[in-house]
Design brief:
Radius of gyration of chain A: 46 Å
Oligomer: heterodimer
Number of helices of chain B: 9
Strand order of the largest sheet of chain A: 4-5-7-3-6
Largest interface: A-B, 37 and 51 residues
Mean pLDDT of chain B: 86
Number of strands of chain A: 7
Low-confidence stretches of chain A: 100-189
Distance between the termini of chain B: 45 Å
CATH class of the largest domain in chain B: Mainly Alpha
Strand content of chain A: 5-15%
Shape of chain A: elongated
Order of helices and strands of chain A: HHHHHHHHEEEHEEHEHHEHH
Mean pLDDT of chain A: 74
Helix content of chain A: 55-70%
Distance between the termini of chain A: 65 Å
CATH architecture of the largest domain in chain B: Orthogonal Bundle
Structural class of chain A: alpha+beta
Largest sheet of chain B: none
CATH topology of the largest domain in chain B: Rna Polymerase Sigma Factor, Chain: A
Shape of chain B: elongated
Number of strands of chain B: 0
Chain lengths: 407, 169
């Protein structure tokens, strides 16, 4: 490296010892370098001696300025900033959550689910009330089955999962969130269980879904108990009551779940094994009794005894028939399960024509402008109306700040 | 870190005031040499306002006066841009004087040589020769490598020598 480049640094004492030594030796060797060094030293001294020393002034102003708080930290500004921040938070909040509270969005889906669940008990009733309801064939329920369902309905209400359907009607359904795992269907292969449930499913095409379900149910050896479709403001809702063999109930539930987005689900089961067994025992006793009376009747010699025995035998046989019928009905109900399904089809989004974007953008911007204006005016009204609360505080703070400044 | 600075960082307004008093003269001269005496007062005041706001950012990597002069330098640059002031005006820091007979180098010629320097060269000359700052401190204030400071100073003196004696390598 050229020593000349480091001459100034050498003069200023800014070189390392080694480098300074090198430059010093170069200076001893080279008279031109030495002459340059001398001139540099002279120049340095001359610049230093000709430097101006400005007279210091304005220290008080600087002290006062340093004591002064920035305008945005002064009390009046803080108050205005606070109000502005609240206003902005309100504005942003009302834009993000136009329906009200901050928690609304989180519960919207649950509410939608609950709404479907509320509709569930009125399967068929809604359709009847709707002017646009399409008539659907109603399949009449066998009488004995209906009776048995009516009878078992009360018991089902006590069962843990019986909040679903009782005898084909939906109670206060326990709705499950679509995100939650599906309710496990109890394993009932060895027992007599009256199973029923309801599902609310959002599908792309309600009518197509209903047709698919009808085919599935028929293939399972079941039948469609009732079915109707309601069309309201381009929103198509279909209700179906399906009866399938108990062994196919879970398969049907899974099939329906897969058809779309599950919005509500309630499944129930009533174990009637005990009731059937009880009826069987009573039948056995009554049949034994019948056998005894028959034997006694054969051996009877007196007319009065014969008449009494026939009455008793007749009475026992009536009881046997009645209990036998009930037992068969209950077994029949347990063999067939009911699933109520509600298919809903979301409103189809209008298809934009290529030229619609301008109009849509204009409408959207106008709407946003109006909403923003309304929000701003609402905010200003709040500030103005609440001024009796904040204005005295603001004045007090301002007055205190002035006093402090004056002091 | 200086105890006074630490106190000021905790929000002690008394310590802040003492810092102003302690460093004002140096900061004012530094500013006055860059933007002139009139604007220098404003710049110095603004420097201390910035100090109050930003003292929390001072991490002690350099000495406090060096950090403060860095703030002052940025303030002066902003003020010069805003008011369209000439950077480092010679009359702000160099006394041309009339007593040229006793001087080894003619002051008028020296003034011309100094005026011929670029603002960057003038800046390091003032900082080193007039304000007495070390190369490392200048580098910190200007936010440039120390080698750059050394190089600028070397070339500034080379240029002045050329101007004054018409020589140099």
């Amino acid at each position: 490296m050229n020593e000349r480049d480091d001459l100034k640094a050498y003069l200023d004492g800014e070189l390392t010892e080694t480098r300074a030594e090198e430059v010093r030796l170069a200076l001893e060797r080279d008279p031109d370098l030495r002459e340059e060094y001398t001139f540099m030293k002279l120049l340095t001294k001359e610049i230093q001696s000709s430097a101006k020393e400005p007279e210091v002034k304005g220290v008080d102003g600087a002290r006062a300025a340093a004591r002064r708080r920035p305008w945005f930290l002064k009390p009046p500004a803080l108050l205005v900033e606070g109000i502005a921040a609240l206003f902005v938070i309100g504005l942003v909040g009302s834009t993000i959550f136009p329906d009200g509270g901050f928690g609304t969005n989180a519960t919207t889906r649950s509410l939608a689910t609950a709404e479907i669940a509320k509709k569930a008990p009125t399967f068929g009733a809604d359709a009847a009330a709707s002017p646009k309801t399409e008539a659907a064939p109603m399949v009449e329920k066998p009488r004995e089955m209906a009776d048995a369902e009516a009878k078992t309905g009360k018991d089902m209400a006590k069962a843990p999962l019986s909040e679903g359907l009782n005898g084909g009607r939906v109670n206060d359904a326990v709705t499950t969130s679509p995100a939650s795992p599906p309710v496990a269907v109890p394993n009932v292969s060895q027992r007599d269980v009256v199973k029923n449930g309801s599902l609310g499913v959002k599908v792309k095409d309600t009518k197509q879904a209903m047709q698919e379900v009808t085919d599935t149910v028929r293939a399972m050896g079941g039948f469609v108990e009732s079915s109707n479709v309601s069309v309201n403001d381009s929103d198509t809702v279909g209700y179906m009551a399906l009866r399938v063999p108990a062994s196919s109930f879970e398969t049907l539930v899974n099939n329906v779940r897969r058809m779309g987005e599950v919005m509500s689900e309630a499944l129930g089961g009533q174990d009637v094994t005990g009731s059937i067994a009880d009826m069987g025992a009573r039948l056995k006793v009554l049949r034994g009794e019948e056998e005894s009376y028959t034997q006694m009747l054969r051996q009877s010699r007196r007319l009065q005894d014969t008449l009494d025995l026939r009455d008793r035998l007749s009475n026992v046989r009536q009881q046997i028939e009645s209990i036998d019928a009930q037992k068969r009905a209950l077994a029949g109900v347990a063999s067939m399960s009911t699933l109520n399904v509600q298919f809903s089809q979301p409103k189809s989004e209008p298809v934009l024509k290529p030229g619609d974007w301008f109009g849509d953008a204009t409408n959207g911007a106008t709407k946003t402008l109006l909403e923003a204006g309304r929000t701003i005016i609402s905010g200003a009204l709040y500030v103005a109306i609440l001024s009796p609360i904040w204005a005295p505080v603001a004045l007090l703070v301002w007055w205190a700040a002035r006093r402090r400044k004056a002091a | 870190m200086d105890g006074l600075v630490a106190q000021a960082q905790k929000g002690d307004r008394g310590a802040m005031d003492r810092l102003v008093c302690e460093h004002y003269a140096r900061v004012y001269r530094f500013c006055a040499r860059r933007v002139g005496e009139a604007a220098g007062q404003d710049a110095a005041q603004e420097t201390f306002v910035t100090m109050v706001k930003s003292i929390g950012k001072y991490a002690g990597r350099s000495s406090f006066p060096t950090w403060l002069l860095g703030v002052a330098n940025r303030t002066c640059m902003a003020l010069a841009r805003k008011r369209r002031l000439e950077p480092m005006p010679l009359e702000a820091w160099h006394d041309g004087g009339t007593d040229t007979e006793s001087a080894a180098i003619d002051r008028v010629a020296l003034a011309q040589a100094l005026r011929s320097l670029s603002p960057e060269h003038r800046e390091v000359v003032v900082m080193h020769e007039v304000e007495g700052l070390r190369y490392a401190e200048i580098a910190e204030i200007l936010d440039v490598p120390e080698g750059t400071v050394k190089s600028r100073l070397h070339h500034a003196f080379l240029n002045m020598r050329k101007q004054l004696v018409g020589g140099g390598q």
